[in-house]
Request: fold
Amino acid sequence: MTEGAETRPARVVVADDQTVVREGIVMLLGLLPGVEVVGAAGDGEEAVELVAELAPDVVLMDLRMPRCDGVEATRRIRAGYPGTQVVVLTTFADDESLFPALKAGARGYLTKDAGGDEIVRAVQSVLSGDAGLSPSIQRRLLERLSDPEPPKPAPAEVPDGLTAREVEVLELIAEGLTNQEIARELHVSTATVKTHINNLFAKTGIKDRAQAVRYAYAKGLVRPPMGGVT
Reply:
């Protein structure tokens, strides 16, 4: 823990766009020793503003928020206010949430089923220079390190501004996989798969999965079966 942290509580800002959740976290932390909540933000933009104003030790950061999401807010806080650490506190534990947050500079990552004691331990860990990761997140990192499965690279020229992940989802649609099967294949949630599908449909003008298959073949993203595609 940083010098002087033993004699005073860690000053914490809570950032979450759901009022009930945010107020619940503030109330929970108020009952625990070693933590003083000094501010609460309803989105990432407000979180950055509070860090600039209050210089807290730690921000407990949700990821899915309007205006400025948790990853971007984390990146801005760590770049502009390096004395403030970030611990992600989110519902999501999939790779597409976890790794961008850690790359942005978050030192801790907890899911919202964490108890108060676990949150306090994570805060204390990041102030000591350690990582504040829940056991499930530690296991996910170890799995990724022991059996890395990076996304397939997108074609050199990706059509219609699709991202590499959207192309990967499109390829799996063309292979006939359901949303649930795609989620298992990519180690993400079904909700994340639906978001990618909505995005790629919007970018390409595709209206259904049959059109998605034809689009994938037409753009050379997948090889059509013998006999071609009708």
